[in-house]
Queue: 4 jobs
Job 1
Amino acid sequence: MRTDLIQQIIHLHSLKLSIKKIAKELKCSANTVRNIYRTYNLSTYNVRKYALDETFLNSIEERQAYFLGWLWTDGCLVSGRNVISFQLQTQDKYILEYFSDWIFGQNLVKVYKRDTFKAGNYCSLQIYSHTLKQKCIDLGCSSNKTFTIEFPIISKEMYRHFMRGVLEGDGWISPSEYKINIASASLKFLHQIKDNIEVESRVIDGESNTKNLIIQGKKSVLSFLSWIYDDANYYLERKRDRYLKLKNIKRKCKLDGQEETLKRYYEDGYGTRKIAELLGVSREAVEFALKRFGLHIKNRIVRRVYLRTENQCIGCNKTLTIDKFRKRVKKDRISYEVRCKDCEKLLNKKRYIKNN
């Protein structure tokens, strides 16, 4: 090997350049540089492009617990690499900007265009650190965490911040039903959440891989959301707004002369949830009134969803035009989005008995 090449490699090594940069600078292969490193016992420098705080997870406070909540749900530890990865939709980009600022001290979130059938872009944050990844593993995370994730080893005072991240990552809030659902493929994780939150909840173990933890009822839902959101400094705005909306809802328990309007909505095919929203009353008040009028809710739903023929409109009983949108066939049923020619009623994603 040429003496001048060896001297140049040793010189560039003293400047703490990476093997890749040295090979590019001298127009030789990376293996050539590595061979000289081994021959002369030269250390391999791992030069970072961006400095980061590797002590970020040494003590778990609000920021760290919130970060872990998102990692446990929408993040991952890349298998075989020292990488912590996050991918979110672009409207939630500011959450990753929080993490980037805490760890890097600057915004390193990147936006990419989806190359699949899904519309829109997504944002991503990659954290390259053996120390931080190992700390996450010590706290209870793993590379293949989908079915094995467990509740992290943190103090009870930080549970609410962790649960805020979990809810915003893999949960949803339904203001109309006073209901919270947290989804996970790890049944043990959901049972641990149930044991660590001080509200009534239940875990549903369905046949699919996804299990659900349900918190339902006005008192339980508001108590849980108040616990995780009150005095919080970091949160997903759209889900916190649902909590504030739910907190300020004052539903009436009586119809106050709206019985005829309720009947008309019922005849138009609206469900109890939609009727309650239109009338500004509770869903229970609508269901009670329908029972009082002798209108059976269960039979009405069946009659609205399952038609005798796929060419009959619910509203006017005339022929309707079928727009084959997201067509799904399962056994003897078929799913369409349909619109009636005469009354222009739109029936979205309803199921109809197939004609034999």
Job 2
Amino acid sequence: MLGDPADAPFRTGGPVYRPAQRDSVMREMQRAREAQQAARDSLRDLVDQRYAEQEAAKREDRFELRLDWTGIDKPAGPESFSPAFHFPPVAQYMTGTCWSFCATSFFESEVQRLTGRRIKLSEMWPAYWEFVEKARRFVRERGHSRVYSGSQDQGVRDVYRKYGAVPAEAYAGVLSPDGRHDHVRLSEEFENFLSWVEEHDLWDEDLVVSYVRALLDREMGPVPETFEFEGRAYDPQTFLREALRLDMDDYVTVISTMKQPFGEWVLLDVPDNWRRQEDFLNLPLDDFYGVVKAAATSGHTVSIGGDTSEPGVDGVEGRRSCRPGTSRPNASTRRAGSCASKTAQRPTTMECISWAM
């Protein structure tokens, strides 16, 4: 039985808490070091600010190379033509999904041409699944696959073939109240996550795809498995086949480049072909151009994908494009012709087009 400690003067004292010992010299050195670091940080902030201001000034004073329209007989506008059916253009806002808006618009026109129905399709449906497929291939290729924003119209075809299609009313793909698409945060988190996967050698496809879909659901909203359209229940595949009546095997991709043999299926070696597909039919330039002209004169629409930084593309000059007549194109086509994209070579003649916004 323990007694009163006062009754045992011979016993030593136990452990106690007391203020930590503070060496005055060490404290002085620490304060000096912190002051020096603060001074360095302050200087770095001033330098960073100066360079940021210089970069901002450069952006404000930036010039870009554009075509001189003086003396060019240009169309007055889209009203000068008899257009095939298409819905009004839709803004992609802060996304890298121009390829989806372009090809989706093309397929809307195809649906009207084939069935007479005017059905607005979801542009974000292909974009959602393109993120998923990029993550899937990134895992399978152990990091050797592009995951950054950007793709081609074949992406829409591949998504339709694998996942089907949905109308815009079934999937908007945007959660912001103003309805404007902003994928900046989504893209950053998507790319950072896959970088982490590679860094930690985590090549579990199901786990990675599951996380990516959770991220997409949070940023874009979950995609529907079934939906109703005009009083009937569909899933995406039955909607593609029965409502849209689109068969993806009816469409091929055509390019014209002297780097590859003509008349063969080849690889279009550009970053946006992240699937590295070798399903591009390479045609001589005259044959390619003939396909595009035949499509347009036969009532088909033509989807043109190109670099808007090219001098001939001018959204200020009445939203017009002027392309050299001897351009070297890349295109997708529906057996009789449908989608095209061009890269300029040495010009000999000029072709001008106008577009509506």
Job 3
Amino acid sequence: MVITENVRAPAPRPASGKPVRPLRLPRKADRGSVTAETAVVLPVLVIVLGMVLWGVGAAGAQLRCIDAARAGARAYARGEDPAAARLAVDQAAPRGATLVVRRSGELVEVRVRAPVHPPGALQRMLPTLDVSAVAVAAVEPGADSAPFLAPAAGPQTAPAAVPDSALGLGG
């Protein structure tokens, strides 16, 4: 009968020759520190995420302003009905956008500006961004008779500063 004893093998040594320390469990004082650190960092991560989303929203609003200004400049330069031109701008522009149409000689300039508000609770901490775009188009022959684009009239803002009747919308 062979009796064997449980003999503990010596700890392996790395190539450096120093003994390897066994892994220790965290002390009781360290327990819960990960939870506390996460609780501190989580609100910061939410704020950063909100700011990133706000930036993406601002970039999208900028692109929509560019599209709206281009559509408006084309429509006004072709001499389309002012209501149809305004509709083209409204369909492409972000919500709350303002439109300024100006004619200088043979050019029509359309400027679209829109506010971009921060999301949620960030509205109290961060300002509203204004994004805008300008498009210029040459007035086509035969479009010179449009009354809202008379060169001497200067800038006109729709819808608030120009009455609907001046834009050919009736009323």
Job 4
Amino acid sequence: MIRDLLDRFVADLKLRGYAERSARTYMRSVRQLQNFCCCRLEEVIEEQLREYWLYCKNELKWSASTLRISYSGIKLFFTHTLKRDWEVLRAVKFERDQTLPHVHFVIPGGGLSQDRDKWVASSGHFLVHVRALSRMFRGKMKAALREAGLMEKVPPEVWTQEWVVHCKPVGDGRHIMKYLGAYVFRVAISNARVVAYDGRNVTFKYQKVRSSKWKKMTLPAIEFMRRYLQHVLPGGFMKVRHYGFLSPNFGVPIQKIRELICVLYELLRNAPVRIRPPNQPRPLKCSRCSAVMKWVRYLPPVSASP
């Protein structure tokens, strides 16, 4: 019976157009609920769902995004597969995470050779495999937490999951510098954007991304301060740090590196353009003797006599 229910759930997900990866994630959410309740899925009651999500939030310390994924899968299962119309499936709300600490790395498309006498450029738009990079980042983070004695504060399943490290080419860097510059070289909000304060609420104006229209928002003073303080770095952190050949302690002056890059690109610009010959079709060979076959004529199929 359990297998039949899960098969029906998979069929429902396919009919609704869910991708295979999403279907696997929702299936895992339903199985986790079944393991918690220790009963058949059709015997799960509404109160058990409340207890399960409270357990995941308070005991397992799941993030809001993980809770929303679990909720979405379980809701689909009970609403569409079991046809249950429970209040808990409509009333549960998981707030978004209030903080999202992250780091931006601006990496040059190349580096100095070992003898530091020439610039070695990356090939095209590729620098490194992101999957290998994510596992390397996860390993270094694990080693740093272990050295700091903080490993027990991290759930063990964190180290068995795939981490996401995004890496993509950004051309000459002008657009990304314009994007990061708004965070690095400006304060969270200027005095000119604060429109009014009545002792309890703060009204300020803002612009959405890629929009020239100004809008207004009013927030309680405490909430306004909380949002503002999210842009204040903790003690010991810096907004911008330079590594590699941009570090002040690097042995090669930045002017010499610029000259090496100019030399390389001058050579590439003056290099003769190689015209590749068109790809020749591979000859058709006999599957038995491997001799090259020559086309003579086409023989249409002969229909068998009745």
